[in-house]
Amino acid sequence: MMKRTIVMLIAVGAAASVLACGGGEKQQAADTMQMQMPAAAATAPAGPQTPDAGGKIDSVGMYTDANGNYFKPKDFEVHQGDVIRFVLVSGVHNASFPADSNKGATGLPSPSEYLQLPGQTYDVKVTFKPGTYYYQCDAHALLGMVGHIKVESR
Q: What's the average model confidence in pLDDT over 16-40?
């Protein structure tokens, strides 16, 4: 009985080490575990948004692949009235504009739900004041899945 317990502990420790190293299917399993957050931690996307007259839709891909977890592009410029469309390409990700990383900013969107199926989107209508804003995937920010959006007036 004691021998079986020790073997189980070793197996659990090895599995935890492999998941911590990330990569491929193991990373997706870790992503799935991370996304199981309380419902209060995420809000539903507002749905598709339409840019103002003369505005455009700027797409940002959300990826998990051999290069890690990242946004593409991660740093870009938009104008007030544009729409930022976060598009899940692979992995499980969200888009978040944390208040503590955007000091003094008002009107920022709530964090999106975790997008889980390739092709899912989350739209953000750019109504913020001109300036530079930080955004991230909450589950992967410490792994470098962050970016900056420079907002210009129209």
A: 41
